[in-house]
Amino acid sequence: MSHAVKQIYVDFEEYLEDEREADVRHEYVDGQIYAMGGASELHNTVAADFHTAINNILPDTCRAWMADMKVKIKAQGKFYAYYPDIMVACGENTDDPYTRTNPILIVEVLSASTRRNDLKEKFDNYIQIPSLLEYVVVSQDTPHLRIFRRNRDWQPESYYAGDIFCLESVGLELAVEAIYRRVRREVGLEIKLA
Questions:
Q1: Is Nuclease one of the keywords UniProt gives this record (predicted)?
Q2: Domain assignment of residue 163, yes or no
Q3: Average pLDDT by stretches of 10, the chain with 194 residues
Q4: Which of 69, 162, 178, 182 could form a Cys-Cys staple with 65, CB 3.0–4.6 A?
């Protein structure tokens, strides 16, 4: 969960400059900065296994980052900067080496404290990114993910345990259970013996 650090307007360029030296990460939402809280072991494990699956199939011209690379957005004259749980971009970065403006895939792992923000504010801003092809939200507590695709007008597609999904943006086909392979018991996938 993030909390506002200041209730005064902060210039976007000032935020970007200060963030390079900050000990704690902050997201930027139209002049306000919000400190980022730490993520749970479950959240980090799900994100790491998903990142690994994505990263392993990427061509050399693409890169995937986990949690520490900012995406910079300008939408309707307002600036935003978020730290997605997973982000993929292809091609050279012609901007600031601490941010990307051209992701093709963004993944957020949902927790109780981030669900509303990830499904509303971030969704609304992420889909304004011209290069973004897919936005994926992954439950950290149950084997469930939703994929929103530009070529389907950002309508959600849900996948559950037993399903196989495809990330068209990166050419990855994967079983839902593969994302939860190290946390099977915690998300209810543990096989029960009679």
A1: yes
A2: yes
A3: 63 94 92 88 96 97 95 94 97 89 96 83 96 97 97 98 98 97 92 58
A4: 69
Q: Judge whether 110 lies within some domain.
A: yes
Which parts of the chain are beta strand (E)? Answer: 2-4, 26-29, 32-36, 62-66, 70-75, 78-82, 86-90, 99-100, 103-110, 134-139, 144-149, 156-160, 164-167, 172-175
Number of domains within the chain? 1
* CATH code of the domain in which 47 resides: 3.90.1570.10
For residues 194 and 190, what is the distance between their CA atoms, to the nearest angstrom? 13
DSSP symbols for 16-33: HHHHHH-SS-EEEETTEE
Predicted local distance difference test score (pLDDT) of residue 1: 44
Give the residue from 142, 179, 161 showing the smallest Cα distance to 47: 179
> 87 — alpha (psi -120 to 50), left (phi > 0) or beta?
beta
For 93, phi and psi rounded to 5 degrees? -90, 115
Give pLDDT, residue 191.
Answer: 63
Q: Quick one: which of 69, 117, 74 has its CA closest to 93?
A: 69
